[in-house]
Every structure is written in structure tokens, then in C-alpha cells.
Sequence to fold (1400 residues):
Amino acid sequence: MKDLTGLFNPRGVAVIGASSQEGKLGYIVTDNLRTCGYKGNVYPINIKADGDILGFPAYKSVLDIPTDDCDLAVIAIPSRFANASLEECGQKGIKNVIVLTAGFNEVGGEGTKLEEELQEIAKKYDINVQGPNCLGSLDAHTPLNASFAQIMPKPGNIAFVSQSGAMTVAIIDWSVSEGIGFSKVVSLGNKADISEIDVIEELADDDKTDVILGYLEGISEGERFLEVMKKVTQKKPVILLKSGSSQAGAKAVSSHTGALAGNDFAFDAAFENCGVMRAKSMQDLFDLGTAFSKSELPHGRNIAVITNAGGGGVLTADKIEDEELVLAELTDETMAKLREVIPEEGSVYNPIDVLGDASPEGYEKTLEIVLAEDYIDSAIIMACPTASYKPKEVGEAIVEAKNKFNKPIMVVNMGGPTFVEENKVLRENNIPTFVFPETAVKALKGMEVYSEIKEKSKESAVDNLDGIDKEEATKIIESVKESGKDALIGSEAYQVAKAYGISAAPIVLATTKEEAGQAADDMQYPVVLKIASDKILHKTDIGGVQVNINSREEVEEKFEEIIARAKEAHPDIVPDGVEVQKMMPKGQEVLIGMLRDAQFGPIIGFGMGGIYVNLINDVNFKLGAGITDEAIEEQINSTKVSKLLEGYRGDAPCDIEAVKDTLKRVTRLTLDFPEIKELDINPVFCYEEGSSALDIKIKL
Amino acid sequence: MKDLTGLFNPRGVAVIGASSQEGKLGYIVTDNLRTCGYKGNVYPINIKADGDILGFPAYKSVLDIPTDDCDLAVIAIPSRFANASLEECGQKGIKNVIVLTAGFNEVGGEGTKLEEELQEIAKKYDINVQGPNCLGSLDAHTPLNASFAQIMPKPGNIAFVSQSGAMTVAIIDWSVSEGIGFSKVVSLGNKADISEIDVIEELADDDKTDVILGYLEGISEGERFLEVMKKVTQKKPVILLKSGSSQAGAKAVSSHTGALAGNDFAFDAAFENCGVMRAKSMQDLFDLGTAFSKSELPHGRNIAVITNAGGGGVLTADKIEDEELVLAELTDETMAKLREVIPEEGSVYNPIDVLGDASPEGYEKTLEIVLAEDYIDSAIIMACPTASYKPKEVGEAIVEAKNKFNKPIMVVNMGGPTFVEENKVLRENNIPTFVFPETAVKALKGMEVYSEIKEKSKESAVDNLDGIDKEEATKIIESVKESGKDALIGSEAYQVAKAYGISAAPIVLATTKEEAGQAADDMQYPVVLKIASDKILHKTDIGGVQVNINSREEVEEKFEEIIARAKEAHPDIVPDGVEVQKMMPKGQEVLIGMLRDAQFGPIIGFGMGGIYVNLINDVNFKLGAGITDEAIEEQINSTKVSKLLEGYRGDAPCDIEAVKDTLKRVTRLTLDFPEIKELDINPVFCYEEGSSALDIKIKL
Fold:
């Protein structure tokens, strides 16, 4: 783990390329350090230095700085000179360097070389390098503005990490008008050294940061990302907006920063796996972030809605259902208590309608009654402006009630000027406010999801499987590789599956009719015969498949028939022989598959099998690495075919444990053999007892 | 069509219940009329009137008003006195009355009676009554504030109609801080007389209104709604937020205003049918409304994105794909032109990156190049704040370029204070501005959808079907009704289908084995026999179904067997006989069904058939009334089963024309017979030529 203390709270900062000339990058950075309230020493560095720059004594090189307190240098000179300066930083013992300059890997060619050189120097001197091609860093608490953003954000408890510098300025600018405060804002740039993982790891232990937001275009180290995020998300919510999710977007990403945009569903699976929440849009990211930054987490999905207008209550109820939260059903006891404080024309059913002329005390009492109930996990309070509504007093009453209970409250004040003062009171007291109910409900949903993430088990379900013969599988796969093939034939795939304890229909490759007969006798009848050749694609069409064979004589006869037909259809192809497969009774068809993501490894798919898989599209994907029993359960239950497995309309239920076992073993296999690029079992037949993989395709 | 001119632009207004006492409803309304800039006469009415009220001469009754220019009265006295005042308004010849007072139908009992009385008086004197239990009306252009909302909205071209008074104030309050202007704002209340339909019909011809927004909890006259909206949406976009879409929400609606919350998918189908756009949230409603209020419509889905920061371009591209719009692929010619104005480090691919230091002229030229291309339908211009960015000048440059072309432009300015001035310039010049790209893309999508709505054919596909014998169908349905049954047996349903030209497998009810044999001979073999009784539910379980019968002898034998088994299983039930059905060859299974909505009539479902319909859930619903060929095409194409019908993976395609024909005939049948409550055909077998409805269930 990198120590980034000096990046955010340095004793002294050098600005390499500092300038007195307004508008220059080196001017802006020096000026930002001068005006942001930073209390350490500032050392302007300029090769032509002569006297002061912006009131600070300037030096020709960092090597000339007379003290040893310089923990951070900001490089703002053209890329071709940057590495020499970085080298000097190393010699001076400066451990943190921000390279603002562009002209590195993002431009390719010479720039890529410069960036490689930069990485070598960083390694040699053990320097944390942020960038190049970035905006810099800001710490609103230190305070420190080591960036060329000319606005300092308000101090707060949200950290924001961004791969796009422009987006970073945009967000700071926007935060000013929204009243959003930040702890740290970090622009990553090309991530030559410091990545989002390093920064987020540091932020996990930062006591000024309660929630971590990020905008990313790609992730460089998948495995480390997962490992670190699993730990961080146990401490604080991490919410990321990952762009480039569309085909069109992915194109723009690669032309933009050269980041390798991963496969989008791989990101979904990976984020889920390590507890990172994925925002769908910038607005989403900050709505969620703001809610997290203010409110405690709910401990369940039951919401009480208190409104002074029926219409608003209805809209909120709609949204609660959309988000799969629960509009709490109030007990008679609760309703009786509410009746005492709500007039007869009001409603004590949830949404609770306190009416347009409700007093601040009415709000307070109502809120206290519902928050006191164990079965209510959170409350949404809505108001429309009415003639008798007292905004500030209602705000104070809500704060009063809220302070007595440790439950999240979201306030929806539908309107503008009427609520300015009330919203201020609420926000100062860590109660999130919204204009429309839908945003409040979405925020609450996000918080509930995070609350569930924290409670989920972390134990891998595929670490201690019995009956796995890795050596045997290695032997088969190695021999396929040696033969120069990039796919296993059926009998080889069966052998691999068998070595991993995957229940499958036996397949044996026979090169003579006697071998075929013996194999059929061994596996018992009925059997299927199939021409074995990776060069013959439409096996059925040429009569290369024969099903339902019930005797040795028939096997031998069909063997010759198949060979003859193959020769007739493809005189130039020498088949490997004929595969004999045990014919299994039909079961419920499911599909188990694997696609390997370059960054996150195997992504396991499960869903409805059969010939219409693409059409029905009932497949759910999970990340293989570190998959838990809970996640496997979720994966199965999220598909439509799970309803068939459970026994649809009176059918006998299938052996779901057997399905899970197969899923786990396939995951283990694809984790153990990175050379397996794709795996596809369709169908797996599921029975009342056990299951059987029929058609196993493994590509290397 | 009601004439509502006097409601929005009255020569004089009477306030019944006017008061000098601050805080009273009658004070607020009178004061609003006094201060809103209204130029007509104001007549305060108070039974205790003596001299002036708020500077206007007051009268004891509207009958005492000395002039005849009073076109509008606002009633603000308790409900028990309201009707007497309404009666006086009638006598005075006042044609428009707003009843603000609550205590009518929404409270039930006595209130419902009062509302009925009110309706009678309105009818007797031909008065347009708005409300009761409403907030009133505002017209920002007249100007007129005949409501108890104490803020007057800015004049604009958006009309807002709302069923909730509280929501109306909330929206006006909010619009002030958002800078949104309104033409008219109308609170509907209980809709005792004037409904959303009347108001929207009036707004269609209002030259101050360009877009109509509404918040509704229910619709009272389905058929008229459809008829009127079809016309209005050809003139102006109508965007409605219909609440109560959730189960929980529907509960809240009924406890709130007593409005009958329709079935939610019925609203989707109905809105689609008449071209009304449905907003998903308040934010959505106004994002769309604002975009429509400012911009022309796009004529296609191809968008050019111009950005000064790569990250923003990626986010926009993602969203464009999500919304099924198109990131226009630029031609070499366009890119060559762009290259002349964009520096080398920028991107001339779409998203076009003009770089952080782009000048206002750079923006203008780039925009002009793309807007000039015929294949580009709209543009999104994005900016992040950079040091050299000149907000106001860029804004002016955009306006300049925009004025030369008749294409929609959305501006996304990511940030806060930096863009305040630019956004003002843009909005004043009718260019919508947004903070984040996702909202801009959503707005553009909405506009494109509306543009397509306007171009869609309006011709009913079910008006001129040949071969329909309504008389015959009437005869069968009448006889079923007479017998007191609420469902047709198979042979009856077949007769009805046949009368409507629906291709179906013949079914004949036989009461003797000879009849059964004769029927089988007539329809030719193979046939199926089924016990006929609406009291026996699990026919297969008791051996009441026999398939694949190939001869007359077998028919007669199985007839007796089935009767015997039914008697054995249900000694108390006398079956109607045995149904003989022609056994059809298996085809691709689809489902055609109908659910009747109380307000909008038949809703026709189409999708994948078979035993897993509920599990697969591949059914699309359309409104039956006025369905077009285009809509039927869309309905079929939106299902997964359409891929099977087209010939999946080399299968022969099915006769889709036959499927359409069946859909049309089912629609016609359910339109012609409102007594058919539910209809369900599952499966319809689809063949290479023709189709055959197998299991037709009709409930009355």
C-alpha cells in the first residue's frame, strides 16, 4: 500500500515551472497554493528563476531548495523536460510528484516512451507519481490546492476521484452551486503510477472521508482492484460511474485516453463481487453520494412516508414499489397513536397525510411515532408549499425528532424559494433534501443496497471443493495444447469435466468399431454416436449423428455407416474417429458458461438452456473469483429457469444442489486454467436427483 | 367542446367569500387578483359586505353586481353554502365558476350529494365549473391569478394541468427557482364538471401554449380522452405524469381523491394509442417540457456531439446508445471540413473533441459544419469549465450558428457558477441547457419520439374487415347469456370465432356417440375428444381428454369411455356432452388475449404462447380501439416470439399475415361485444401458411 500522506498534507510543495506570468499553468498552480489557505512552504522552481515568484523565493531546481520539508512537487513544464525534473525530485528525496503536463501515453509514439521512462524514474526513487496529463489534487481540509482548478471546493466528507481532468473541474464548479462539500478531489490522468486503487485505498483510512465517488473510464489491475475494494467497501461506500459502457462510448474511450475499456457486463459482475456500487449517471453518482454523506444507513426496506399532500404521497408510493422497497404497513397500534396527532381528514395509513395545515409540532410528533417503531427502517417526509406551512420551523422539528432516533430520514420539499431556509437547516443537520420524491427513494434504495453489501458473507464457495484432480485436467489440456488445437473435442472435454467432479454424460472416442462397441457396453445403453472431427461442422446434416442405439451390434454397424458417410461428404477430411456418448434421459435444460475478461478473469453465466438461449436471453453473470454461496444462490434465483427448477405448476422440483455443485466446479476449473478462454455447457440436464452436463465446449 | 375563454381571460371576476381578513381564503384570492396585474374588474362578494374589500366595491351577492361583464366567479365559501352561490351565478349569467372549496365528493357521504347537486346546477345554467376542491387557475399572459397560490409564475409557453392542488403550488414555487415560465396553470380538483380533457382541448388552440404538461391520478372518460388527445397531439406535445402506477400507489390514490385508478398497463397502451407521452417522474416531466418549450423537433435519430473534454463525450455516447438514438457516423467529407477548424490533438470523429482551449469561433464553425449536413438531425454541445473557456461568448456563438439551421441543439454545461451567464443567453434564445449529458439525451429522445408520433398513420386497421358475421356471433353470445353462464364452452367459442373469420380448429359438441362420430367424419381425422362441462376443471386428470383418434369406431368407443370416467369422478355433475375437436398439426405457439379496461375498452395482448407464458412473459399490449397496421406490426415485432415466427436459425418463416389477421379479428370482436370481459387464445398455432386458434376461452 502506497503512503499518500505527503500528497494530501505535505509540509512543503515545489512547483516546477512556476511562473509570474498570468494565465500560464505554472502561474495558476502557484497562485492556487498561495490563495487556498495552504499553511506549508511553497517553493517555486523555474530554470530562469531570479528572485521571487508570487511572493515566494524561487529556485532554479528542486536541488537548490535549502530545506528538507518538501513532500510534494507539482510538475507543470512541457513533457520533454518533465522526466529530468522528476529525476531531480528523486535526488532531493521528494516522495510525491504530480505531473500535470500532457504529451505522454495519451498521444502515443514518443509520448509512450516518455511515460515508460517516467515510470522507471518513479520506481528507482520510490516516488508516488500522480498523472501525467492530470488536473492535480485538492484537499479541502488541509487545505491544499495542488491543481490548476481555480475554484476550491467547500470542505465536506465526500471524496471524488476522476480519470478525466475536465470532469473534475466541472464537478468542483457544479458543487459550488449545489452546496456539496468535498474532503479530497483527485484527478488521475494517465495513471502511470498512482491508480484509482491506490487513491481509494488511502481514502478508506481517511477520517475526513465518509463516502468515495469516482468517475472511471477503465481499470488497470483487475485482480488488485477486487482485492482492495472488498476491504474498502466494508469500511465506506464506494460509488463509481464507469463510462464507455456502450459500444459507441467504448470507441470514444479508446480514442480518448487509450484506456482499455473492459467488457461492460464484466464490470457489472466485478463491481457486484467486491461491493462497489455503480452509478448510472453523474446525477445518480452525486445524489447517492450526498445521501451517503449525510445520513446513517437503513437496516431494512420498510419506509414510512409522511406528506402534507396526497398527490406527493402517491408519487412516492409508486417509486417505492419501482425500487423494490416497501411502503411499511402500519400496525393498528401505530395508527391509533397517529390518530391522536393527525386530524380526521388526514390519513393514518401509509403514506401518512398530515394535511396542508399541519403544524411543526404535528410533523415532529408524527415523525417520532413512526421512527419509534421497530418495524420502520426509514422515513421520507414530503411537503408542498401551503399558505400555513412554516418551513423553517418544520425543518427544526424534523431535526429535533431525527436526533432521537438512529434512522435515515429523507426530506422531499417540492418547491423552490419557499424551502430555501428549511433546506439549509436540514442539510446542516445532516438530513438530505430533495425536490422530487423519486430522487429521495432512489437514494434510500442505494443506501439499503450498501447496507446489504456490508452484511453479505465474503467466504469463497469454490476454495475447498472435494474430488478435484487438477493434475489429470492439466494433462489433458496440455496434450491438446501440444497438438496445436484451440478447442477440446467432446471426449477430451468430458475427461476434464470428470477430473473436476462435474457430473456429465460419458463420452469416449473410438477409432474402430470394436472400440466403439466396447465403450458402449461399458457405459451401458442407449448411446449416441457422433463423427469426431473439429473440421466437420454440420454433423447432423451429413448423417454424422445417430441417436438411441441400443445394442453392440447396432453400434458397430452405425460406426461404419457414419465413417462412410463422412468420407462421402468430406473425402478430404480424416475424422478423429467416432464419439460414443451415453444417451441421458431428458431433464430440465440449463446453460452454464464462462467468458474470460482480460482484467477480472472468468465471468460465469447461468440460465435457461436449450436451443433458444439467445432468444430467451435468461442468463445471469457473476464474477468467478471469490464467488460466495450467497451469490450463486442469487444468480440462480434471478433467472426464469429457476422457477422451472423449483417445480413449475406441480412438476417435481429438480436437484438444485446438483446445479450449484456444477456451477462451483466449472468456476474452479476456469479459475485454475487461465488458458481456458471460453466454456459452454448447453444443456445441462437437471433431474429430480443429480444433473448431467451434455454438450461441453471448451476453447483455449 | 367547452368554451373556456372566460375562465382564462374574463372581462370581470367575482370572488364569492371575499374577505379583508388576512390569511382567509377569500382574502388571498382577492389579493392575488389585485396584485397579479389583472386588468379586468374585480367584484368581491360577501354576505356581510359593507363598502370596499381590498379597495374594490363589495356586494352581498353576484346578483347585485351592476354590470354584465363578469365572466368568472371564484367560490371560496364552505361547501354547504357553495351550491346556493353557484345557483346565483347561473341566474346572473356567469359562465365560468371555480369552486375552491373542499368538502365534496372527496369526503364521501354528504359531500358526494353536494357534488351531485353542483353538477345539476352547472348543467341547468350551462356553467363551466372547475373543481370543487381545487387551487384555481392562473394565466401568466392575461395576467390572471384566480387561485390561492401566492406566487405568479413567469410567463412562458408551457401549460400545466394538475389533479393535485398541492402539487400545483409546489410546481409554481419550484418554477421560480428554475426559471421555467408558464402560459396557464390549472388545478382540476374533483373534476365534477371540467376535466383534464376539456382543459387540454382548450389548450390545443391556445396560441400562448406550445407544450401541455399534466399530473393526473385518474382519467374519467376513457373514450373521449382518446378521441380528443389524438387530435391535440397532432398539434402539440402532451406529456402526462400518471401516478398510482404501483399497487401501493393505487391504494393511496383511492384513499386520496376517490379517483378510479385504472389498470396501469392500460394507461400505457391508451397513451401510446393517442400519442400522449408518459413521464416517469416529475423531473422527467419538466425536463421534457422545457426541451419541447424551447426547441424545434428533430427529424431523425442521428446526433452529433461536440465537446471540449473527452470524458463528457464518452458519457454522452453511452447515453445515446442507452436511449436507442444514434451517434451519427461522420462522413470523410464532414471530417475533412472539421479538420480545418479543429487542432490536430482534437477529434473529428463523433463525439467531436474541440479541446479545452477551443475559441467561441471554433465552437461556432464546428457547429455550423455539422448542422449543415443533411444526415445530422440534432447536436449536443458539451463544455467543462477550462481556464480559457469564454462562457458568454461561446453561448453567443452557439446562438449565432443555431439561427442559421432549423435543427434542435441541446447544450450541456457541466458546472455551476462558470455557466450562469452563458445559460441565460442560451435559454433566452430558446436553446435548452442541462448540467449533465444524460438529461439532454433523454430530452432529445422524447422529442424524437414525439416527432415520430406526429408522423404515424392514424387509420384504424380493424374498421373494414371482410367476412364478419356479427349477427351470428350475437346469436351465440345472447344464447349463452340467456342460459345464465358467464363463459362460453369450446364449441360456442369456436362458433363465435368462425363468425368473425378467425381461423380456428373446429370444435363440435356431441351429446351422443353417433353425433361425435358424425362430427369427426365431417372434420376429418385425427380428432381430439374432451369432456364438455364448465364444472369439471381438471379434465386431463380424470381421463376426460383423449387425443389422436383416427377412426369413427375409436371416436364412439372413446366417447363412452370419457362419459363413464366423468361420471365416476364426478357423480353429481351432468356433463354437456363431449367436444370433438380437429387435431391440428403443431405450429409455432403464440398467444392472443384481451383484457377489458373499464375506461379504455379492450387491451389486446400478443406474445409467446404455450404452457410457460407466465414464466417467459413475452407479451405486448396494445389498445384495441383505433389500432393501426403500424401498431400491430410494432406489437408483433416487440416480442421475442416474432423472431421464431420470422424463421429462427434456418426454420421456415411462419405466415405473419395470418397472425395479423387473427389479431385484427379478435380486436374487432372484442370492440363489437363489450360484454366479452376476457378472451384468451393460447395457443394459436402458426404455420408456413395460415394459422389455427386452438384453445379459445371467452368470458362474459
